[in-house]
Amino acid sequence: MRRLVPAGLLCALGLVGCQTMAAGKAVPASVDLSDPQTVSRLKSALAPVIGRAHIEFGPSAASQPTMLSVLPPPLGPLETHSTALPAIFDVVIKDGKCLAVRHDTGAETELKDVTCRPVQH
Asked: Which residues form the signal peptide (predicted)?
């Protein structure tokens, strides 16, 4: 009897996990970075996540609209080099919302008033 309880519990947890993942499936999306308003809205949404008032996108943002890279802050007057890396975000649509998902933490940030379009692979 003792073996049945853990096996049943494990099975139930597995089923719940599958339902949770299916409900919130993220679809890769792109944003129009040629539109200045879109770029401004993206910066406004991601600046608080990065912890800076002013951010700049890296060159990969223009070539891959499904991924946004936010450059580290510029070097100070006494600095000669930095080991800081860009913060990388994937653009996705999940549950009808446009989101930026940070690579290193997995944190999701809603991109309000930004139009995302699903990307077909």
From this structure: 1-22
